[in-house]
Amino acid sequence: MARMANNSLETLRNIPLNSVIPSLWPGAHPASDGGRITQWRFPDGLKVNVLADNQGFVAWTHRVNGQRVNAQGPSQGHGALDLVMAVEGGTFQTALHRLIEGSPSLTRDSAPLPPAPQDSAAFRLPPRDFNSEANWRQVRRYLVEERGLPPWLVREVYEAHQVYAGWGHRAGGFLIFPCRPWDQQTVRPHGPEPTGAILRWAQPGTPPPDKYFGQTHPTAKGSRKDAGWWQIGQGRQCVIATEAPIDALTVYAGLHAMRFAHHVTIVAGGGQGGFTARQWTGFPTVVVATDRDAAGDGFDTTIRSQVTREQTVLRLQPPAGYKDWNEAWRQDVSTMMKTLQGGLQPALTLRRDRDAGLDR
To answer: Origin, by domain of life (predicted)?
Structure first.
């Protein structure tokens, strides 16, 4: 068995690097420097030089004192596994699974792998479509064309790395909404390190049974719901709890149209177990804007058990006749806006925003 495993690893190491790159990252484009090197340029700025005769590679995102440095992983290596770690980061084990799952035509002769171990201290986001144009088209088609959200808002959350299109056998067809511990300070431009992700099937019909990473709930495998959440806005007058990122985006769009968006923070729990006391800390008022159904009422009960005596809790349901906020937004935006304004009036000092841009 050990010999088979070694042979399998040797097969992976010897896969031509110029075949691995377009298979795993279709958004990368090759360019020649006129010598025996092929340079691949990735949409996020990464450059990878593949040496002739599969002798290895050099990867970098920037230069320091003339030296090429790769902030994402190894700056150089020899085989396909080193290359995956250089492009995506992660460990040898995650690179092994990524290579076999993402390049079945190149790795069909390799021995099957055991399930990837789950590191309870670290979460790895599902793979994204590295073709930036294709990724944006998928996000826009679903959130703008199907869900009716404003194009400017969808573009801003996309560019803020708050949503992207999944890629590969298991994540393909989903939109991925990274969850982060937003109560932590960070110097990262897009917020703290993700601790989980909420998934939304963005294709017609229902997802095949092998989707959702083998699960039936809308969170990526390995997500720690008690550690992070999806969030938009950073106003401090109140925090609004919604069940899903699309609900949060819809409520934000409505408040933006009324020029009140800068006064609130809106969070999305992602289903059962997705709300924690950390989300309400420091807010005088908590508005429970979950769905108009039994599950929404259950979330209301959960959240009320987590707040302090000094905090005010308000229940704000979508308009009568509509299950959730996005349904009301698409079918009767006027009634939806009146419901929002009336329900939030006790929680807000209604001073309209001067600049209603996106905060987070």
So the answer is: Bacteria
CA distance linking residue 290 with residue 267, whole number of Å = 11
- Decide: pTM greater than 0.85: no
Ordered alpha helix ranges (H), the chain: 2-13, 17-24, 80-88, 92-102, 132-140, 151-159, 168-171, 245-257, 294-304, 325-331, 333-344
288 beta partners? 241, 315
The helix/strand/coil state of 228 is coil
Q: What is the pLDDT of residue 357?
A: 46
Q: What is the DSSP letter of 207?
A: P
Reply yes or no on domain 230-344 having CATH 3.40.50.150.
Answer: no
For 275-329, the pLDDT digits (tens) are 888 999 999 999 999 999 988 898 899 999 999 999 999 999 999 999 999 999 9
* Residue from 224, 281, 274 nearest 244 by CA: 274
- pLDDT score recorded for residue 171: 81
The conformational region for residue 151 under phi > 0 = left, psi -120 to 50 = alpha, else beta, is: alpha
